[in-house]
Design goal:
Layout (H helix, E strand, L loop, with lengths): L2 E2 L2 E5 L7 H9 L3 E4 L1 H9 L5 E2 H5 L14 H8 L5 H9 L7 E4 L4 H6 L4 H6 L4 H11 L5 E3 L5 H10 L3 E2 L1 H27 L8 H4 L7 E3 L11 E3 L2 H4 E5 L5 H14 L8 E7 L2 E8 L2 H11 L7 E5 L5 H7 L4 E6 L4 H7 L6 E5 L7 E6 L2 E6 L11 E2 L7 H15 L6 E5 L2 E6 L5 H14 L8 E4 L7 H8 L4 E4 L6 H11 L2 E4 L8
Parallel strand pairs: 2-3, 2-5, 3-4, 5-6, 13-14, 14-15, 21-22, 22-23
Antiparallel strand pairs: 1-7, 8-9, 10-15, 11-12, 11-13, 16-17, 18-23, 19-20, 19-21
Helix pairs in contact: 4-8, 8-10, 14-15, 15-16, 18-19, 19-20
Amino acid sequence: MSLKISSALISVFYKDGLEPLVRLLNEQNVKLYSTGGTQAFIEQLGIPVTAVEDLTGYPSIFGGRVKTLHPAVMGGLLYRRDVAEDVAQAERHQIPPIDLAIVDLYPFEETVASGASDEDIIEKIDIGGISLIRAAAKNYNDVLIVSSRSQYGDVVDLLTQKNGATDLSDRREYAGKAFATTSHYDTAIQSYFAGTTQRAGTTGPIYDFKALPANHLRYGENPHQQATFYGDLEAMFDKLHGKELSYNNLVDVDACVSLIDEFAADEAKAFAIIKHTNACGIAIAPTSKEAYLNALACDPVSAFGGVVITNAPVDLETAEELNKLFMEILIAPDYTTEALSLLKSKKNRILLKRNSVNLPTVMFKTILNGVLEQDKDNQTEVTSQFKVVTEKAPTDSENRALEFALKVCKHTKSNTIVLAKEGQLLASGVGQTSRVDALRQAIEKAHSFGFDLNGSVMASDAFFPFPDCVEIAGQAGITAVVQPGGSIRDQDSIDYCNQHGLAMVTTGVRHFKH
């Protein structure tokens, strides 16, 4: 059943992206009703709009807590156009129909995340907005509900293609999205009162992930798998250039972000190159160019087609080196104008500018007939937490290298061994079924790219059940080791280190990543 939109109620907190939709509605001769700041926004565009107060006969009262909760508004959304009694009552009480509602909700989660006072948080619990959304969605037979700014572009396309009309299937689809929005919102509020919400997008609200913007991908890990990303990519990144992100791209981007966040921008410039979620290169240095070149030197073969991330703005000097590499994606907090112009010379290269966004502190994985939830591994041990268990203690340089290696190890698939020197990954053994195999893989890889392991360090994501790993490491020239400890045979490994002049520290914390 196709219905032409003749009237619309617009009441939104966020105005960004709204203008094209408002202009289209005006061009299609849709009568607009609005409130407060939204009304002022529409008037500034030179577009006629009727204040809701003129429709209801009541002003906004109680500090704005009540303005749309009135039969003239709720009735206009809820009355059934195909029920004669409803139509008669609407005419009798002079309630005009509202065919379209564009409503978003107060930023409750963002207010919680900002550390605002309880009073400010409570005032961001939307009452009128959520009632409007639910009313319009309930009456999707007659009304189109637009419940998120992420939908504006799609609605413009829809109303342009159908000349201001909508089909029942369109309205039902948007009603479903609206109820997902209200469910997510109420879950966030419930989580706050239960004391579980730590920041936007964590514990409770993430369960209702389908309330987040849906980004339909070309396919999943493989072409025969369908895939969708639920999340606000536009909030996370500004895409400055290149093709659309794929499922595998997004998985690697997530790995990049998690790893680079171990290295604060004010400490040193850091560059990481990721391939299949593991770092094939990472380094820190005083300059971005030096950090990138050192990261690339770790494994220039695997770097081909990888995802690159840095914690510092990309300048032209660094961009000139980056431009020599075929990469899928480059992520940075910013780019100079000259650097961006050069990097855009490759048509399909994806360039992302990362924004400051609070990330979830929990993670989920579907298994069997259910879902696993766990806290993210947000713990990283620093040198002050190391426990020296050998007669020889690491030097200051070795300690810095051990801390660096441990950060990389934490973000590498188990079983893993990471070999490093201060500020640079040399090689890693990734995802092996035995820790000895992981170590041998790392040693062979380091030698294949010309690295001298004498004086390097080794990090392990879990304890050594036997002394074989430290024996192999010592023979390769490694001089210091960091591992969690906790094996009943720890002393065997410690004894070997003492007998051969190696330093070993333990952390008491395992970093498996499956």
